[in-house]
């Protein structure tokens, strides 16, 4: 893959994303029991001197994307209510299916929300950060979107 900016070195792909957390165990449980991630324990990050765990690596099963959950309570608190990643699904019905799953697991989430071009769903993770899904199925561009004080912020 080549860069579009002349003279810049190439970048092959995203290696991994990093998400802060106030509790590694709680966030890890959320991502591996509610969302389709696998903990890659052999990549656990520990301090060399103390052996204390400070990060874990998880892999998104459908895409093989790696995410580092990094212990950083201050940064996790600062990102409450922020959706740093939006996952893609095919249809609005897929969003409804995700919503049913989340509700059955006791996860607080929005209804399926109408956006400018399609629909989305937002859930809250254990740190209060938002996990969002958006579907490829679309409708005509419409500025009359669903507004929700908690889940949709402009």
From TrEMBL:
The residue ranges crossing the membrane are none
Signal sequence region: none
Q: Name one GO molecular function term.
A: dioxygenase activity
Pfam families given in the database record = Glyoxalase
Q: Which domain of life is it from?
A: Eukaryota
Alphabetized UniProt keyword annotations: Dioxygenase, Oxidoreductase
| The keyword Oxidoreductase appears for this protein | yes
Checking InterPro entries in the record gives: Glyas_Bleomycin-R_OHBP_Dase, Glyas_Fos-R_dOase_dom, VOC_core
Q: Which residues form the VOC domain?
A: 13-136
The protein's matches in Gene3D superfamilies, at most eight in alphabetical order, are given as:
2,3-Dihydroxybiphenyl 1,2-Dioxygenase, domain 1 (3.10.180.10)
Kindly provide the name given to this protein in its UniProt entry.
Answer: Glyoxalase/Bleomycin resistance protein/Dihydroxybiphenyl dioxygenase
Q: Species name for this entry?
A: Mycena maculata
């Amino acid at each position: 893959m080549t860069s579009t900016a002349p003279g810049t070195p190439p970048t092959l792909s995203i290696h991994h994303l990093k998400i802060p957390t106030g509790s590694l165990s709680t966030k890890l449980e959320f991502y591996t029991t509610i969302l389709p991630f696998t903990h890659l324990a052999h990549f656990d990050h520990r301090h060399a001197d103390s052996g204390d765990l400070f990060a874990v690596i998880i892999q998104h099963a459908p895409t093989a994307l790696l995410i580092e959950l990094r212990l950083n309570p201050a940064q996790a608190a600062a990102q409450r209510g922020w959706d740093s990643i939006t996952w893609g699904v095919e249809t609005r019905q897929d969003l409804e299916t995700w919503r049913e799953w989340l509700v059955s697991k006791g996860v607080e989430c929005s209804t399926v929300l109408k956006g400018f071009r399609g629909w989305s769903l937002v859930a809250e993770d254990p740190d209060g950060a938002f996990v969002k899904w958006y579907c490829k199925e679309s409708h005509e561009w419409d500025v009359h979107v669903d507004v929700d004080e908690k889940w949709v912020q402009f």
